[in-house]
Amino acid sequence: MTYENLDAELVNELLGDGRASLRSLAEELDVSVTTVSNHLNDLEEQGVIEGYTPKVDYDQLGYDVTAVVQLKVEGNALPEVTDRLRDHDRMISVYEVTGDYDIIAIGKFTDTDGMNEQIKKLLIDPDVKESNTSVVLNAASEHEQFELSVDE
């Protein structure tokens, strides 16, 4: 076997089962356990693979209110506001973006009261000039990852 696609194939296998053993990965990819281990270590060191975490269904845990928060912030306060949002335990994604708003944050809440409380904190933040919040009615796709292309 050639190793030119091994990293992509290894990532794809882990996307299917992040708990797969080195032995099962080696068997699936038709390489040695040592080869899988070495490539996996390289991918981790390069930051391609940043960890192994469970895929949590927050709705099943009672966090069934998802809010998309768009913020306009004071010019040089962008990093500070982004850091504060990132550190909030209910914000699952925070993006600095182009367009009409500077930040888009996605939050998960148990109820609209919890969401409302967080939004009110944002509104009194002197670095936040404007906000727009949308409540998600239906998540058609969420937390999806995609397999890497493998040359045949």
Please outline the helices and strands.
Layout (H helix, E strand, L loop, with lengths): L5 H11 L5 H8 L3 H13 L19 E9 L4 H10 L3 E6 L6 E7 L2 H12 L4 E8 L17
Antiparallel strand pairs: 1-3, 1-4, 2-3
Helix pairs in contact: 2-3
Q: How is this structure best summarized?
A:
The chain is of the alpha+beta class and 152 residues long.
List its traits:
2 domains, 152 residues, 36% helix, Alpha-Beta Plaits, Arc Repressor Mutant, subunit A, alpha+beta, elongated
Strand content bin: 15-25%
CATH topology of the largest domain: Alpha-Beta Plaits
CATH superfamily of the largest domain: Lrp/AsnC effector binding domain/regulation of amino acid metabolism (RAM) domain
Order of helices and strands: HHHEHEEHE
Q: What general form does the structure show?
A: elongated
Report on this structure.
The model has no long low-confidence stretch (mean pLDDT 91). By secondary structure, the protein is α+β, with helices and mostly antiparallel strands. The chain has helices at 6-16, 22-29, 33-45, 78-87, 112-123; strands spanning 65-73, 91-96, 103-109, 128-135. The protein has a four-stranded antiparallel β-sheet with strand order 2-3-1-4, with helices on one face. It folds into two domains: 6-45, Arc Repressor Mutant, subunit A; 58-135, Lrp/AsnC effector binding domain/regulation of amino acid metabolism (RAM) domain (Alpha-Beta Plaits, 2-Layer Sandwich).
